């Protein structure tokens, strides 16, 4: 008996009790859809988090904090380390920054703002895709670049208990600066505290450029990029390394001191480059952090989560398999005369077994097909309704790009395979029972 004949025989017999067949396929479809939709939550959240990280420039960046020497002592990073880092294969750029160790007050007219001041190496910053929204790079020692949000946070001094901020954190219109800062002179006021006595020094600076808006809406950039000579002037005034307000142990400024950097970042072209660079840096005893290493941990956590969700979803299919088992058992009983005739004309028991396994597989395949279609529909509706639900319940928009449910082809394949395996296993015992039917009893319908 060929496979085609077996399949035709199965279809003919399945048509004899359509209502029972429909309910069995329905139960299997529900179980398969539940499995896919449940697991799709893990896949969706995983995809949303990874996609958010991949869209950020940080994914191609490695932060280096310090280096451990042969004696186990951690030391800061200097020009020698930068030179070594730039020679590593696949390194696109090595940025290094020194931070002024106080928050100076920047004043222009009646407006002021305390902001972090940074000395940056702009040739490497440009290689790392540093961009300006307007203006140019500094060419003179008194020229500076300000962050994109600097002007938006520059405000008039308040009197008494006046609150200059709106509920969303922005500066009220009557206090906000509305002019163009480009080309404007602004005074940087630094503070020195010596034996409890405070003195200030004012350095006039010219704004020649404004940094590009950060890639994330929630990021606020009010940094001020100053020259190294400005930092030297502040250090000369305070007498403390980094321009800190007060002296601390080891803070004395020395003429021949080895300059170290507060922030050193290595950039590659893609994730693969960052993986190789990170391994090289760790082998060289650098203390680093990269989003790629965090992604590995996230992937491991979500892998466990996905396996758990698939396992829970499989339970629904196992429950549905009880219906398949009952259906196949009843099919064996109802078709006892047919089985008897087949055995009487010399049919191989293996062929009889295959016929019933084929029928249970067919039920599983139909259930998996309909369940997959339903799961895709539910997934689409969930993602469509999620923003509306979040807006109505929490009165705020969900994170951009959030995908609660995502069904990759791999999940579909896994679910179909599990569904077929469960249904075949459910029909295995009834199929074995069919091979043991006694011919004479079957002909008398006594099975």
TrEMBL record:
Which compartment or compartments is the protein found in? Cell membrane
Please spell out the taxonomic lineage of the organism that makes this protein.
Bacteria, Bacillati, Bacillota, Bacilli, Bacillales
The name under which this protein is listed is Acetoin utilization transport system permease protein
* Bilayer-crossing regions: 21-45, 300-325, 362-386, 406-428
Q: What's in the keyword line of the UniProt record? A: Cell membrane, Membrane, Transmembrane, Transmembrane helix
Task: Tell me which PANTHER family the record gives.
Answer: ABC TRANSPORTER PERMEASE YTRF, MEMBRANE COMPONENT OF TRANSPORTER-RELATED
> For the MacB-like periplasmic core domain, which residue ranges apply?
22-237
User: Hey, which family's this protein in?
Assistant: Belongs to the ABC-4 integral membrane protein family.
Q: Where is the ABC3 transporter permease C-terminal domain?
A: 310-437
Question: Which Pfam families is this protein grouped with?
Answer: FtsX, MacB_PCD
Topological relation to the membrane, as annotated: Multi-pass membrane protein
């Amino acid at each position: 008996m060929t496979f085609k004949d077996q399949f035709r025989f199965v279809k003919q017999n399945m048509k004899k009790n359509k209502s029972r067949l429909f309910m069995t396929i329905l139960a299997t479809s529900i179980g398969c859809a539940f499995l896919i939709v449940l697991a799709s939550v893990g896949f969706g959240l995983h995809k949303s988090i990874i996609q958010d990280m991949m869209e950020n420039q940080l994914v191609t960046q490695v932060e280096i904090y310090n280096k451990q020497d042969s004696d186990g002592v951690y030391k800061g990073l200097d020009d020698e380390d930068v030179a070594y880092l730039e020679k590593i294969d696949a390194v696109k750029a090595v940025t290094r920054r020194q931070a002024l160790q106080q928050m100076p007050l920047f004043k222009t007219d009646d407006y002021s703002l305390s902001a972090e001041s940074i000395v940056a190496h702009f040739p490497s910053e440009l290689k790392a895709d540093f961009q300006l929204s307007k203006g140019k790079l500094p060419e003179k020692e008194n020229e500076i670049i300000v962050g994109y949000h600097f002007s938006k946070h520059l405000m008039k001094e308040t009197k008494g208990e006046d609150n200059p901020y709106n509920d969303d954190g922005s500066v009220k219109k009557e206090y906000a600066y509305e002019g163009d800062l480009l080309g404007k002179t602004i005074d940087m006021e630094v503070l020195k505290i010596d034996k409890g006595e405070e003195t200030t020094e004012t350095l006039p600076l010219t704004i020649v450029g404004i940094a590009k808006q950060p890639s994330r809406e929630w990021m606020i950039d009010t940094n001020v990029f100053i020259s190294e000579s400005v930092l030297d002037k502040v250090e000369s005034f305070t007498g403390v390394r980094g321009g800190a307000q007060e002296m601390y142990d080891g803070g004395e400024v020395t003429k021949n001191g080895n300059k170290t950097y507060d922030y050193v970042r290595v950039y590659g072209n893609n994730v693969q480059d960052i993986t190789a660079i990170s391994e090289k840096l760790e082998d060289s005893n650098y203390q680093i952090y990269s989003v790629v290493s965090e992604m590995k941990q996230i992937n491991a956590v979500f892998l466990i989560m996905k396996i758990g969700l698939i396992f829970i979803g499989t339970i629904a299919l196992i429950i549905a398999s009880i219906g398949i088992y009952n259906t196949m058992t009843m099919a064996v009983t109802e078709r006892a005369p047919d089985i008897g005739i087949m055995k009487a004309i010399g049919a191989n028991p293996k062929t009889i077994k295959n016929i019933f396994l084929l029928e249970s597989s067919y039920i599983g395949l139909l259930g998996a097909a309909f369940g997959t279609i339903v799961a895709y529909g539910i997934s689409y509706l969930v993602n469509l309704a999620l923003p509306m639900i979040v807006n109505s319940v929490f009165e705020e928009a969900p994170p951009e790009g959030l995908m609660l449910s995502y069904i990759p082809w791999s999940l579909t394949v896994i679910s179909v395979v599990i569904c077929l395996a469960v249904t075949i296993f459910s029909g295995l015992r009834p199929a074995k029972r069919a091979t043991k039917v006694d011919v004479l009893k079957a002909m008398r319908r006594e099975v």
